Amino acid sequence: MDAVDLIQPFLVEEIESAIKELPRNKAPSPDGLPGEFYQHCWPIIREDVIAAIQHFYQIAQLPISWGSTHTVLIPKKENPCFLKNYRPISICDTKYKIISRILVSQMKGILPSLVGMKQGAFVPG
After folding, report:
1. Sorted alphabetically, which SUPFAM superfamilies does this protein's record hold (predicted)?
2. Is residue 5 a part of any domain in this protein?
3. Which of 62, 89, 93, 107 could form a disulfide with 29 if both were Cys (CB 3.0 to 4.6 A apart)?
4. Contact, 6 vs 109, CB < 8 A?
């Protein structure tokens, strides 16, 4: 894979693979739909989701709602009394996660040729 491959439209197989890889038992996105919804209802929503993600690629503009996150405080212990007793998490839209997974998957193939031999952070092995 080279840089030219990174500008190709997202393939249906890439979208479906990203959806299959979505983690289970995670907080739902701001629209209330968790990854399991996409996996379970895939036969029903397949065409619409594929069209939406491919449309994003064609116009190179992410809908505002897809890029929005909700920050939620999760208690670290029972009966938290102080702010330090909470852990913040950012809840992202599931379609944003799908696009991110596709981009990461595509970049894995080209990353070794872009990163120097002495680079160690964020590079497996």
Report:
1. DNA/RNA polymerases
2. no
3. 93
4. no
Structure tokens at 104: 């990461």
Name residues whose C-beta falls within 8 Å of residue 49's C-beta, 6 or more positions apart in sequence.
15, 19, 38, 95, 98
Query: Does residue 75 lie in a domain region?
Result: no
pTM: 0.78
Cβ distance 73 to 85 under 8 Å? no
pLDDT in tens, 12-29: 999 999 999 999 998 888
- 95 sits in which H/E element: helix 94-114
Owning domain of residue 97: 11-62+93-113
Higher pLDDT among residues 67 and 50, named by residue: 50
